[in-house]
Specification:
Number of helices: 5
Order of helices and strands: HHHEHEEHEE
Oligomer: single chain
Strand order of the largest sheet: 1-2-3-5-4
Radius of gyration: 31 Å
Strand content: 15-25%
Number of strands: 5
Largest sheet: 5 strands, mixed
Amino acid sequence: MVTTVSVGIYMSLILVAWHGETNVFIVRPVYLAVVGYLTAYLAQQRLNLETQVHQLESAKERNRIARALHDGCVQTLGGINLTLETSQRLIGAGRAEEAVANLAQLQSSINREHDELRLYVRELAEVEPGQPAREYSADTRFVVSADFAGSAVLVDQVFQLVREAVTNIRRHARAQTAVVSVAEAESQVLITVDDDGVGFSDPKRVPWSIASRVADAGGTFNVTGDDSTGAHLKVAIPQA
């Protein structure tokens, strides 16, 4: 389009300033058209090549993820299944102690795989690796209230956030009690989570899983907490 407009303008100038030198006036717009065409052609070829490279890189990355999941999670799940079958037979044969020992080893294996998978997911998301997660023996008591309306997408987003918050409290907070509240206010859904656990060592470092979900929902969040007051999370998500 730029070349066509440029040639048109040039030809208009020729009509205005023509003094009989036909050769010069005709050759110059031809050169201009050729250069413009070659520039556009090469640019399009570059775009095509960049698209092909991107597709190849995406396919390579998908294959890498598939191999990692197959060699890690799939193999581990197969081992878990075999261990559970063995434990079931031991219990049926009255060898409960051996079954308990097998289950203890299975739990350790699951914990290791969980840590490796967690680190791998954070690596894919380009998030700084965190400490290995462990569920503590304390059975946190949750008080949950929810009163809001919205689309299926909004409801799913809210409950996914609540689920992530509950999981993080169980694994990290060492809390005795926690309160989760979901309510509407000013065209927003407000989620508040408070616990009496150890709190955040650095309130600015929000759990990645929660921060990413809030960002996807177009919401905002605020986290406070220290060793004496537990952790307090407030999330606001637009209802629209």
